[in-house]
Task: structure prediction
Amino acid sequence: MANIIASAIKGAISFAGELSLRDTIALIERMDLFIVGDTGPMHIADALRTPMITLFCPSEPKITGPYHAEKAIIVKKPCRVIRVN
Result:
């Protein structure tokens, strides 16, 4: 899914599943903008104050969202199943 999304965005690169935790932290720290779901890397970006767009479904941003929300655009949408062939 990450590769499909990245291929639709000019200049985007997906590193999903490719990096160690240490490398992930170093990369997130250097980003101008991080597009991420409600996952552990979102919390890393939040701690590093990396600007991000955070996608929530089905979780609730008020409960599991970034603490430093001023550095995040939070997108909460109803869930739907997307099948990738």
